[in-house]
């Protein structure tokens, strides 16, 4: 593992087992995340974004299993089957923020009490010290005055405020990595931008590495350092944010960008639908929807090839003949 990398995932495969079929939820996933880096994982619903990130700490459903691959975190190889080891990482070194903050917060405790509990659990401090720390972190996420919001219950807060409270809980343990899974999906546009600006500020002030999972590629301009595009359980393009947004190399990435509203241009929709992960097409998994499909795309999946420094793609169009 390179010293600058906080997280390194190598050919991770996760399957979900049902009685009559198996879902290849994550396929040969390889990713690196540097310390203090912000990575955005983008793709349509059902492409495996959430499952891939839950696989890091084995928070996957009971009928799912990481069947192969390696994970290095903070210069140490993780043993996915060692629950005791993972308990020492979940919440303390790797924190998650999920989509519905209101559903994630306990309705019978105040916001402050729940954050205080996080400090007591992960920082091993006294109750009084934890209360002071909870007030401090509420201030950090702009829930001011802290004493006021400390005593609020989740139902007394707006969606955006609840999401800030969830972020406060997530950073209470002083994690090295924060994984935010569609954290703004139920919020209005202005609140979305506010939450992303908050995450960006925490990244700068705390040196926090962030992985943002989203289906909305329009959100991450001026936010992410690196972008990984996911389709049918695999990464099909990854690279610096500016390169991906301004010069996409995979037809799927190009199609996602064409879906964005632009002045003087009609909105385009991606034809077809996301493939069933239990019954994937042969060859390139995007070929049934691709406008540039060639005969070899139907037969064999293309290799992941390097386009430039840090920019790679899985597409025959980019392979030199």
Q: Estimate nothing, just give the exact number of structural domains.
A: 2
Under the CATH scheme, which architecture of the largest domain would be assigned? 3-Layer(aba) Sandwich
Number of H- or I-type helical stretches: 11
Euclidean distance between termini CA atoms: 33 Å
| CATH class category label of the largest domain | Alpha Beta
The helical percent reads 25-40%
Mean pLDDT: 91
CATH topology of the largest domain: Rossmann fold
Tell me the CATH superfamily of the largest domain. P-loop containing nucleotide triphosphate hydrolases
Instruction: State the secondary-structure class.
Output: alpha/beta
Could you characterize the architecture of this molecule?
This protein is α/β, with parallel strands linked by helices and 321 residues long. It has 2 domains: 231 residues, 3-Layer(aba) Sandwich (Rossmann fold), CATH 3.40.50.300; 70 residues, no CATH class. Helix content is 30%, strand content 24%. The chain is built from 11 helices and 12 strands. The protein is globular, with a radius of gyration of 20 Å.
Secondary structure topology:
Layout (H helix, E strand, L loop, with lengths): L4 E13 L4 E13 L3 E5 L6 H6 L9 E10 L2 E2 L5 H5 L6 E4 L3 H4 L6 H12 L4 H14 L5 H5 L8 H13 L5 E5 L7 H18 L2 E6 L11 E6 L2 E7 H6 L4 H8 L36 H5 L5 E4 L2 E3 L8
Parallel strand pairs: 3-8, 3-9, 6-7, 7-8
Antiparallel strand pairs: 1-2, 1-4, 4-5, 9-10, 10-12, 11-12
Helix pairs in contact: 4-5, 4-7, 5-7, 7-8
Please summarize what this structure is.
By secondary structure, the chain is α/β, with parallel strands linked by helices.
């Amino acid at each position: 593992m390179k010293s600058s990398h906080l997280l390194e995932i190598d050919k991770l495969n996760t399957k979900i087992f049902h009685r009559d079929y198996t879902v290849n939820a994550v396929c040969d996933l390889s990713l690196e995340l540097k310390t203090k880096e912000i990575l955005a994982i983008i793709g349509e619903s059902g492409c495996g974004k959430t499952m891939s990130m839950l696989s890091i700490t084995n928070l996957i459903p009971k009928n799912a299993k990481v069947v192969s691959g390696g994970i290095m975190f903070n210069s140490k190889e993780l043993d996915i089957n060692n629950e005791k080891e993972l308990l020492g990482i979940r919440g303390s070194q790797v924190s998650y923020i999920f989509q519905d903050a209101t559903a994630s917060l306990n309705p019978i405790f105040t916001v402050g009490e729940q954050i205080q509990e996080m400090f007591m659990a992960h920082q091993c401090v006294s109750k009084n010290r934890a209360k002071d720390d909870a007030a401090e972190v509420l201030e950090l996420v702009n829930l001011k005055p802290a004493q006021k919001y400390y005593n609020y219950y989740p139902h007394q807060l707006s969606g955006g405020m609840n999401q800030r409270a969830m972020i406060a809980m997530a950073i209470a343990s002083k994690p090295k990595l924060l994984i935010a899974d569609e954290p703004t999906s139920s919020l209005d546009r202005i609140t979305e931008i506010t939450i992303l600006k908050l995450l960006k500020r925490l990244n700068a002030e705390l040196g926090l590495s962030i992985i943002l999972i989203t289906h909305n590629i329009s959100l991450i301009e001026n936010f992410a350092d690196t972008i990984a595009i996911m389709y049918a359980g695999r990464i099909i393009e990854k690279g610096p944010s500016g390169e991906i947004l301004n010069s996409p190399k995979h037809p799927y990435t190009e199609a996602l960008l064409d879906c964005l509203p632009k002045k003087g241009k009609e909105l385009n929709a991606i034809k077809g639908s996301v493939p069933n992960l239990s019954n994937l097409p042969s060859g390139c998994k995007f070929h049934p929807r691709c406008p540039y499909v060639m005969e070899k795309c139907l037969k064999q999946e293309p290799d992941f090839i390097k386009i430039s420094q840090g920019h790679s793609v899985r597409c025959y169009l980019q392979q030199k003949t």
